[in-house]
Amino acid sequence: xxxxxxxxxxxxxxxxxxxxxxxxxxxxxxxxxxxxxxxxxxxxxxxxxxxxxxxxxxxxxxxxxxxxxxxxxxxxxxxxxxxxxxxxxxxxxxxxxxxxxxxxxxxxxxxxxxxxxxxxxxxxxxxxxxxxxxxxxxxxxxxxxxxxxxxxxxxxxxxxxxxxxxxxxxxxxxxxxxxxxxxxxxxxxxxxxxxxxxxxxxxxxxxxxxxxxxxxxxxxxxxxxxxxxxxxxxxxxxxxxxxxxxxxxxxxxxxxxxxxxxxxxxxxxxxxxxxxxxxx
Length: 280
Fold this sequence. Notes:
Elements lengths: L8 H10 L4 H13 L1 H25 L3 E2 H9 L22 H24 L3 H11 L4 H17 L7 E2 L3 H12 L14 E10 L2 E9 L5 E8 L10 E5 L2 E8 L2 E8 L5 H11 L1
């Protein structure tokens, strides 16, 4: 075990936070924290920085995987030559000496405490996040999450897809136009083997969303969802993402947000969305 007493206080406290100390070293550091106000303040800054870093990492890991990347991975062919038959190079043993290991440990401690101290010494991250959330426009991923949840619900109840069936076309038009406040036309997707089943009104980020539901002979279900834009979009471009088994294609036009939701395995989802954009 490395002698922490030879390291700066920041490195000692970083090791304590990371659980890289012996019981004796932990007891010694906890005693110092109990009596040294400066050490307690530094420890709190380092802990705050580590917590902030973990939260940011969790947020990054929650981001949806791009649909194109998932399809690329699924379509990758396995290597033709078995790995066991490939020529391998003899392993190179890289065993650091005692002084090299000590130097590496010191460098890692210094880097770790430096990052933690920098984050902890910067303006309060929670205050920045609170201020930003109060002034930034609504997060579009909130309503996309709701659309995804409703799409999963449709898949699980194929006998109850809609509130108003396709046979009542006039009622669907007047109902959704009034409820959503967006004029629209029901796209004819019969050439692509999708049959219009009817419509629903759902909630996306606590706001009304129109949902046009289609199915095909294989029992697959897609839905076109639309609502008024809360904020002017930065771009009208089509964007494809995937959330587990659900593929999403989003776009904007004339103050309206659109989402086409369907099976992630449907390779033509993007082309279908472009046709819908010209017809709706």
